[in-house]
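Technical appendix A lists one of the benchmark inputs used to test multi-chain prediction within the project. The record comprises two sequence entries:
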Amino acid sequence: MIFLYPELLLVIFGFFVYLVCKNRLIQVNSKYTNFTINNFNFVSDKLKVSEKFRNSIKLLTLFSLATLVMLSTAIDIKVSNYNYYLWDNVFLVSNFEILLKIALLLFFFIYILFFCLNDDFPQYKNYILSQTKYKKSSFLFTSEFLLLVSLFCVAGCFFISAENFFLVFLSKECQTLILCFLIIYCNTKYSSKSALYFFFQAAFYSFMFLLGMAIIYFEIGTLDFNYILDYILLFKASDLSIFWLKVGFIFILCSFGFKLGVPPFNFWVLNVFSVTPRMVIYVVSILSKIVVFTFFLKLNFVFYCLFEFDLNFFALIGIFSLIYSSVAGLIEYNLFRIYAYSSFNHLGLLLLGLSFNNLIGVFAVLFYLVVYLLNSLFFLVLSLYKKNFINIHSFSYHFHVDPWFSVVFCIILFSMSGIPPFLGFFPKMLIGAMLYNYSLIISPNYYVYLFIFIITASLVIFLYLRIVRVIFFGGYKHLKFYNYSFPSSSGYDNMLVLYAVLLLNIIILISVGWVFGFLFEYLYYVY
Amino acid sequence: MNAVAMMYFAKVFLFVCVVKLLCFVLFFSNSKRVLIERFCTYFFTAKICLLVLYFVHNFQIISSLVWISTTFFDFVLPGYEFQFDGVSLVFVGLNALICYLCIVYNVCNLKIKNFYFSSLCIILIEFFMYFVFLTREIVIFYIFFEAILIPMFFMIGLLGSRNRKIHASYLFFVYTFVGSLLLLTALFFIIYKFGTTNIDVIYVLLNSGEVMLSFREELFIWVLLFVGFAVKIPMFPVHIWLPEAHVEAPTAGSVILAGLLLKLGGYGILRFLIPICSEVNLLLKDYIILFCLLAVVYSSIAALRQIDIKKIIAYSSVVHMNFGFIGIFLNNIDGAVSFVIIMLSHGLVSAGLFFIAGTIYERLGTRNMLYLKGLCQFMPLLSSFFFLLTLSNMSFPGTLSFAAEFLVIISIFSEFKLLSSVIIVLLSGSVLYNIWVVTKAIFGTVDGERVSILKISDLSFREIKILFILTALSLVFGTVLCNPLVEFLTLTPFVHL
């Protein structure tokens, strides 16, 4: 029975983390009194304690990862075509949900291994300068940060399983609130500003969600997904009520667009990405995206009849974000703002894929999502090893300092931009091919979309090429803020990551025949 | 030789290349330059042996290759459809030769750190290029066609000599990338229409009438593919990246650019464009030939006004490429054969000329025609190789270029009688700039303040080896082996003929 509820694993994990943190709280407090007496003594003791703490958390995480792998194998064997409702049809457990929950948890545990145990705070100079603050933040981080993030994931699991708009609303608000805390966590002037910014906008969009819910409730009298489907299919809803349903859905989708951070709802993303540490960027850009796309795919399954008539809402947002990211990103020099623009581009393509509204569309979106998440994971993990890699100019000519890192980072960038021999090309090509098929079969609108896809694909190259240029060929001459004081080429904590990047890209190169044989057969038989 | 054996040849060959790449990356990161050179020599010999084996096999069918276990090679390179035929043999041989010579050239001319990086780039390019030349799938062709961009981008940008190198590498990257996005769009259409990307299958489908293309669809595919490949050839309005890239690239980079990368456009058109869009080709044939001739005249006039040797060679390669390109669109076997031979001769000659330009730049510190004078006095060996290669560049009788251009003119003569006589007049343009370069650089006396130049050493042993191989191949194929080569190429099954 426990195999069906991966979130239970998370709760247990959180409980253990809480226990470990409680011990640590006492230890640090006792040391804290010593601090006034002897500064150096404190620092060395603190390091020892945190080492212990890290090891225990690492062990716990590895244990949970092992459980997760067992769990995912058990699902294939034991539970096929399993549908189980809980709490009066509010909570659904089936294969789709369990798989995505496992994906979420997998990314969560990877996150702990790479991020939470690597103090990312020193990148913010305030923290290095004022020791008390740094100490405080580090202390806070270890005790509560993990709990907050695991709570975020529990809310995500509820989100994935939700079969009722009310549960969706609850878990979404829970996630938003936690995100707000996480953004404000490193407690600089800018972070609190952007957290407030985020909070007010989130409040506005959650009211939008409520409005959409209210309209749907007004038309149908329930918020249950299955009941809404029955209402549309069986009771032959009138055109007017279908119209109001669509209006409600558009409000709801707007609020999800805000949560994804896709243009034109993107204004908080750039703020947050340029201010917060990488640990928070990971939560915003990876963990919350899995959840929202699960919800979108579910909408595609459940409300396909509603969206059959006009799916242009997804496509319009997608096209807008493609154009916006490729044009507005051309003047950015901050690494994480560039990353934000690239994520707009990927989200645009994903939304275009969703607008196909058929089985291949779902397949393409899943394929794209997996590749996109892997690429972002590697991007963030690699950038983590270079603490001051924020403004790209501080890394001009880095190739001569640390060639191995530079080559692998460059592979990731090319992979994200979708240049052929690398991983990122294949899902992009799949989406493009489907756009083409759509333009010929269903709607001539898609010719325009294909045209924009090609143009933006050639423009967005410059976004990534700029970083490659700075790393390999040096910075731009007209900008004077070079920082030639490199950190020495440090040994990485995990060479594993570099090997993983290389291997993934090489394996796809060798097995490209298989992948394409499969894809083409699939495409050919369906059309 | 049957098709199955051809496929196994291709897989054995590619397996050798994979082994080479892996060995290089894993074991040779910190070894000496001479060791790397020796390593490359072994693999070069192995590849040439395989090619010769194929060549011999094709003339006297001995036996099929039963001894190669099928499952092993299917496991190593799964799902690919590779084949060897005459055209691929020529290009693959050229590829192996030129990449090997580049590494040999770099041994004495680059520092150890740069040497490792540039050899890695060269080996990667070579590796991708084999896939491009041996595949029958348009998708695989596209993937590796664009993969070559990345090592070439770094080679120009990192190892180039001057300030504009980043600008040049950007130009190269952006031009080629935009062109290949057009290819990608055409690829979408082909996947949609045929459900496969294997060119043999597509040809069968088209000829048996299972899939019909309307005229508009054919025109659509034609325009996309043609513009995509024309950037690589390069045709007249989109040739701007070529002189820039050549001037800024290191010697090995411009050798590979001229000797190999320019061939990709023509090769793609010969393999993929012509079989698919036969009707539109017939319709537009005359215009394309006229356009190519325009490019020939334009670039020979442009070459006359340049003062950088590399730029002159770059423009001369535009002349050659466009001239060879006429052969493809004539739609007869002579035209296709002459195209392949022009590619071969241009690969040998321009590679040699770029090596010479690189050597001059390295010894004297300049490539400027205004400063070059009297090379004959202190570099007799270099000047004689320079003279011989220039002769083959302007297609003097007895060289391979002459045979190739002669074939093109003959095959044009069968269709356009007046035009071919005009072309013979036009070709005198190439004689002008070639003779001008050679006389200006080689002859004359060094006197006055510049006497100290006379101490500069002549070619080293490695450079003599490189230039001798290239010149000798050009001369031998032009005289003795010309007939067997043409026969061999005529025997190969072109898809569309």
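The radius of gyration of chain B is 22 Å. Confidence is low (pLDDT under 50) at residues 60-71 of chain B. Comparable benchmark entries are summarised in Table A2.
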